[in-house]
Amino acid sequence: MPADFISSLFVFILAAFLGIELIKRVSPLLHTPLMSLTNALDAIVVVAAIIIAGRHESRFSTILGLVAVAASFSNMVGGFVITDRMLHMFKTAKAKKP
Amino acid sequence: MNPASLQQLIDFSYIAAVIGFILALKWLNSPVSAMRGVLIGEIASAVAVVATLFDPQVTHYKWIIVALIIGAGVGVPLGMVKMTAVPQRTALSHAFGAMSAALIGVAEYFVGTPHISKFQMGEIGLEVVIGSLTFTGSIIAAGKLQEILPQRPITYRGQNIVSLSTLGVAVALIGILVFHPGYTHLFEAMVFVALIFGIMLVTPIGGADMPTVISLLNSYAGFSAALLGFVLNSKVLVVAGALDGASGFILSVIMCKAMNRSFTNVLFGAFGQVQVSTAKGTEERTVRSASAEDAAGILGSANKVIIAPGYGMAVAQAQHKVRELFDALTKRGVDVKFAIHPVAGRMPGHMNVLLAEADIPYDKLVEMDEINGDFPQTDVALIIGANDVTNPAAREDKGSPIYGMPILDVDKARTVMVIKRSMATGFAGIDNPLYYMDKTLMLFGDAKNFVGSIVRELSGGHG
User: Fold this and answer.
1) Is A33 close to B28, i.e. CB distance below 8 A?
2) What is the pTM of this model?
3) Within a domain: residue A97?
4) B279-462 CATH fold
5) Residues of B with active-site annotation
6) Where are the domains of chain B?
7) Residues of A with CB below 8 A from B237's CB?
8) pLDDT in tens, B143-179
C-alpha cells in the first residue's frame, strides 16, 4: 500500500471524526445554512480542477478540468452567497426592532 | 522565488485553508457567531484558490480565468434563489460538486492510462463511480424538488434486485479495471453504469423522504471529494470532503430518526405505498369547523399559543401572513412560539429558514424535543400546513404505518386549530385522528387567506 494512501487515510479519519463532533454542535436551527456552507467548502475541489486544466496534458483532460473548474467554482460562489443571505435573516426579537 | 519554496508556500496556504474550514463549521454552532464562520470560510477558500493559481504546474491561464468567470456567473444567480427553492438548489450543487470530482477522476485516468498502478486504479474507479452516481442521483432529486419530475416514489416489481445488480456491475467493472487499467472501454462502461445507478437510486424515493435523500447525497458528494483527495494526494480535499461527508451523514441520521426509519428502509422501501388503513373508520366521524372570527376570538384571548408549521404553509406562501399573525398576537401580550419538527421542510432546517425569511425572530423557533413539554400548558396549538408530524397515531396506534415516529404533541394543548384545505391525507396517506378530537377546530381554507382573515379580525377587534 503506498505511503501517500496511509497518510491520506490518517488525515481522513481525523477529519471525519472532527467533522462529526463539530456538526453535532451545530444548532438544528442552522441545518440548512450548514448544508450550503459545507457545499461551498467542498467546492475546494476547484483547486484540483485548476491544476488538471492548467497542466494542459491533453485536450480531453483540459476540457474536463475546465468544466470542473466552472462547476465547482459556481458551487463555491453560490454556496457562500446563499449561506450569507440565509444567516442575515436570522435575527432575535430585540435585534429586529428598528 | 525558487520552485521548492513556492511549493511550500502553496502547501502552507492549504493548511491555512483547512484551519479556516474547521473554524467555519465550529462557529456555525450559534446564529450569533455563524456570520463570522461564513467569512472565515470565504477567506480560506479564496486563499486556497489564489495559491493554486501560482502553482508551477499551471501553465495555461486564459481558459481557467474564463471558466472561473463562468462559474461565478452561474454561482451568483444560484445563490440568489428564493428560500423555498433552496432544497433544489442544494441538490443541484451536490450534482455540480460530484460532477467536478468525477470529471477530475476521469481526466486523471485518461492522462495516466495505461501506466496506472492497481491501487491507484481502484481509488480512481471508486471515486468516479461514487461521483457519477451522486451526480445523476442529485439531478433526479433536484428535478423532483423543482416538481419537473413526479414527486411520488416511482416503483416497480423487483426494483431492488435490478438496482443492486446495476451497482454490482459497476463494482465488478472496477475490479476488472484494477487488473487491466488499459481497458478504456471498460472504464467508459463503468462511468455509464454508475450514472444509470444514480438514477435508479433516487427515482423510487420521494415525498416525505426528500430531506433524508438530500442529506445522503450531501454525504456522497463529500466522500467523492475526499476520495479524489486520495487519488491526487491532496490533503486539503481529503479534509474538506471528510467534513462535508460527515455533515451529510449526521444530517441523514437526524432525518431518519425524525421519521423513525432506517437507512435501508429509506433506500429500499418506498414510503407512501402503505395505504391500507385509509378507508375504514373515517366515514361516521365528525369534525368541528370554525370561522376566522371564532379562531381570532380564541387566539386573541389566549395566553400561550404554539404554531406548528409544515411545508404546506410554504406551498401556500403563507409565511408572511403568519408573521403578521405573530405580530398581532404578540402585541396583545400573547406568548407565541413556533414548534419545528426536524422534517417540517424539504431539507434539514428548511422550516427555520422559511420563517426567518418572514422576519420571525429565531428565538421563537423551538425544536420538537424542547417544545413538546410545553403543549399541556398551551392554550392553543395552531397547525398550518402540517399533517403527519402532528398525528397522534404515531404515538398511540401500533397498527399505524407511522407508529413510532416522533411527533409534535399538539393534541395535548387545550385547544387545537388546524388550517387545512380539505380532509385529504398527508405524505404517508393515512388519516389523522387529531382532526376528530372534541377540542379540535378545523379551519378549512387556503392557509394564506385564512391566516389573513384571522389577522384582520384581530386588528379589527383591537382598534
Assistant:
1) yes
2) 0.91
3) no
4) Rossmann fold (3.40.50)
5) 388
6) 1-74, 84-269, 279-462
7) 44-45, 47-48
8) 999 988 887 777 777 788 888 899 999 999 999 999 9
